[in-house]
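Box 3.1. Reading complex inputs
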Amino acid sequence: MASMATREVDHATPTRRGRSARHAERLARAIETVPYLTRTLPPVEVLSTDGLEAIEHNADTLLQEVGIEIVNFPEAAEIFRGAGADVQGTRVRFERGMCRQLVQATAPRSFTQVARNRARSVVIGDPHMVLVPSYGSPFIHNLDEGRRYATIEDFRNFVKLAYTSHVLHHDSGTLCEPVDLPVNKRHFDMVYSHIRYSDRAFMGSVTHPSRAQDSVDMVKILFGADTLEQEHVIMGLANANSPMSWDFNMLGSAKVYAENNQIMLITPFILGGAMAPVTIAADATQTLAEALAGMAFCQIVRPGAPVIFGSFASSMSMQTGAPTFGTPEPQLVLFVLAALARRLGVPFRSGGNFTASKVPDYQAAYESAISFMATMQAGVNFNLHTAGWLEGGLAIGYEKFILDEDQASMAGKYIEGVDVSDNGLALDAMLAGGPGQHFLGSPHTLANFETAFWRSELSDNNSFEQWELNGALDAAQRANIRWKRRLAEYQEPPLDQGVHEELLAWMEQRKSSFPDSDV
Amino acid sequence: MASMATREVDHATPTRRGRSARHAERLARAIETVPYLTRTLPPVEVLSTDGLEAIEHNADTLLQEVGIEIVNFPEAAEIFRGAGADVQGTRVRFERGMCRQLVQATAPRSFTQVARNRARSVVIGDPHMVLVPSYGSPFIHNLDEGRRYATIEDFRNFVKLAYTSHVLHHDSGTLCEPVDLPVNKRHFDMVYSHIRYSDRAFMGSVTHPSRAQDSVDMVKILFGADTLEQEHVIMGLANANSPMSWDFNMLGSAKVYAENNQIMLITPFILGGAMAPVTIAADATQTLAEALAGMAFCQIVRPGAPVIFGSFASSMSMQTGAPTFGTPEPQLVLFVLAALARRLGVPFRSGGNFTASKVPDYQAAYESAISFMATMQAGVNFNLHTAGWLEGGLAIGYEKFILDEDQASMAGKYIEGVDVSDNGLALDAMLAGGPGQHFLGSPHTLANFETAFWRSELSDNNSFEQWELNGALDAAQRANIRWKRRLAEYQEPPLDQGVHEELLAWMEQRKSSFPDSDV
């Protein structure tokens, strides 16, 4: 399956003529790019208030009795001490309710991340949902080459695919690791690529506080330093070292983003059974405790700095210890944490199109869909990993990106929920029809057909015979044609030449000011 | 992709030794076959009581004003007239609330379908869920042969796969159409195959009332005529001719099953935009109206005869008119109808692993998973089409059967929901650990690991390198190995020889009593 030829014809959009062509045009107009989605469907709740309160109580008990270990970052412990935490050496303990109070006092319930194309700025928080591509893979996969290490060329490709998407709303950050560049200088080229090849909002580096600062400095050149005092233009993602530990790189980077009034996505990353007990409620409890500490830290550093409560929870194969995806337990964790985030009153991030599969096969799709359905249902506000994930995140797939993006386009329709207006109930249409009559040409159908049903652009709903005539391509083969065409047709968004030159000069100076290193 | 060699090695269950082998054995014991599943997770609700009441009100309006057209079956109109309906020619109208009252007065909320192996009898109704393979495909698909017409040999193969499943609970009915047999005699061989090659509960014929009667007569030989007066041992599936119409074959078959105290699954089959308006609420309204009439009919024929409220709702491509699956709208219809069935107080059937794809690819899996997730969440009691569906139901796939069955095994874990007992909350385990400590060997993990996480038997969670060493098979290729092994290892369940001979003799006599026909 690693390499298979696909023909350069896109069968999903055949040429149409006459009435059928006008029909297609009307439908195309109905698919308008929105900068982010809006929910009316009530979120799925899997626990009663009692159950949620028990988890909140236990999270407070953890913060009070176990506390958070601060690794290699004495300054952070002092920052916590200054806010009233009990610090003994590297351990920080919190009075019951202290972290929650810090977060609720100043963290915004909702905020805007400004894009350099302001029409594409995103609102993060209820009742909205922002779809964001995958993050963090050292490998790429495609049908032509199989799996190999990612390069900066791949990184640029994925920025271009994100930029040209009418489904995704944000460009993510480390779409893949450009392993052909030195570890300590990759972030320059990643941030630069986001700025140059797209005009959407994106994320900066968190692998060292100095790289977080470089990321912030680059958006200062792009937006102007004053803008950052008023608006939020870049985001960092910090993972806790679960259980109950935060380290220098992550918390140090969080400090940089928060100090600069920028966005921190605070995400405990928990492999149940390894970094937390094996139960759903325990994973949720520990995630809440760790995230509360991280978000409280940002609020102490700069009250009002926007934070997102994140969760990455995976189940584990009890045979091999490998993380597993698309299983019931992480979906249930997700529902619980989304409810806890609503109670806390901050935006929530979790979910995505997750899989452990190595290729875009049945396993990959099933696991991804189970994960993404929960993502749509739970009330996720910022959905990292919407498109591309393969192999437990070790790889980002070109076909997987296109396949996931296509399926994720259902989210807007899904979270609209059920319309019970008179038009939605359609009683008159049913009374006007009669037994055995079809509704294809009825006035109600004609008035509603453009937006009636979500449709995939990539799925094949043709007859078997038509599908065979079109080359009998499977979904991954059709996606292979799509990403190549998207990259071939890509055009750079305009960027102010002065800003561009300043950015290049600044990067050149910074890059040459210290030696390359792969640490 | 149509034919690809796969090696006769099952990489999903490698040989294990020592501690790892004991570990695997303990896990295997934890996977016990249960005859059906039990739900504790609350069902997903997408509409308020007001919304549900509006739909119920409109369904009554449809039944009152439009009514039901009875096609070629004057006796049914007379049966309705006898119960107080307003009959004018072939049109039957109902006073507001009449059908609901008839159903609620006598239809059981829950009942048992007895299997010839009584340990495998299923309880149909809340809080239970019965998983049932696909139904009704004229074609089969597998990786070796591609797609071709189904034969009685395929039918037997799918009965054997259902029988040997530790995930499915019921054998369905027309697993595929044995098109090598005459249309008017296929039902004999199908019912006989269910009886002989499995010991689970199954469904009989509904293509003509005389074939329904033959099906009932055959289970009378198997169970004894007296048993049928006391217990329910066979089920028929009737689809309405939407909109608002029931015909002779369907309602006539329903009459046979009900008269004999057997189970009728009453399922309007609605392609939104064609057989009903394009909106979710209208599809639900019409389904409710049509199903109420069908279920009321059964209760008039024999008060207390078990009925299941079924729904098959698909969206439509507004380009081509083709049915589409795994889209948001049918899932929302499913949630609404499950809630309406709970309010009515009868078991509910809907959902499954649906797809329009021709092959077990990314599209097939994504559409299936989106459908099946809603099925698990909604509170479906009888889940036809759990395994096998391809190509909008035109084909049943051998690999698809195995892949769906494997994924459906998550349902038991999923509908358990979130445990907030002390063991589930696991506070002591978290307090006993410490920052940065793993939980792999903790007493809580050791006490819970066997049942902690659902795991697929077919998914590959190995490293990329291990997966390559194992042959780099995708999920469909692994499934190909599985179904062949299952069929090769199949052993017939014992059947009383006297009963077997009586069945064969009866069939022989019936078959020779009228000429073959393909109508």
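In summary: Chain A touches chain B through 133 residues (CB under 8 Å).
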